[in-house]
Amino acid sequence: MRKLAFVLFLIPAALFADEVFLKGAGSISGRIVEQTETNVRVDVGGGIMGVPMSHVDHIVKGRSPLDDFDDRARKLLPSDVEGWKKLAQWASQNGLPAQEQDAYKTVLKIAPNDATANAALGFVQLDGRWVTQEEGYKAKGFVKYNNEWMTPAQAQVEQKSAAQDQARRDAEQRARDAEQATRDAEAKTKEAEERAKEAERYNYNSPVYWGGYGYGVTTWPSANYYR
Questions:
Q1: Torsion angle of the four alpha carbons 162, 165, 171, 177, in this order, in degrees rounded to the nearest 10
Q2: 206-224: per-residue pLDDT in tens?
Q3: What's the predicted TM-score (pTM) here?
């Protein structure tokens, strides 16, 4: 719900009329497109947000710019290029990006070469025709590397730099591994030396008498021997 509350602050509340007030988490402004006993879905102009009714405090319904957009669109003739362009601009000014694109797409159906609509939808000119940005870059010989368009030479430089960085990281990792292996070996050697010293101390303090030939190993008499 904290992330949802953050998103809500990005939506100008004054632009909309339908308000879904949440329990302790602000409100969602837009046009309610569906409401059931368990869920409410609100069109906020750039998409639809769904909220469980268990999180809803109360709802205030009213008219929104989405309603105004629909009313304006119904009044336009299918061939009114300038009218649809103005509607697209109005949608952009009122925080309705999806409706803005719909209006510009309508313009292109009427006038496929309209510069304003093509540019707004991300198309670029190539040899007198409008194409997608990807088609334009490919036609100019660009390649995509790390999600960016660049010349093959730039891509080679980026790849070489990335390979050098990776080689450096690998070398550093190998050095760290070697240092760790050295420390492990030193620790094992020290542990073995400690065990050897402990065994030596044990043998020195053990009350054992080595007799002459034929006698074998004998131990010192216990205290009870003299009783």
A1: -100
A2: 665 555 555 555 555 555 5
A3: 0.53
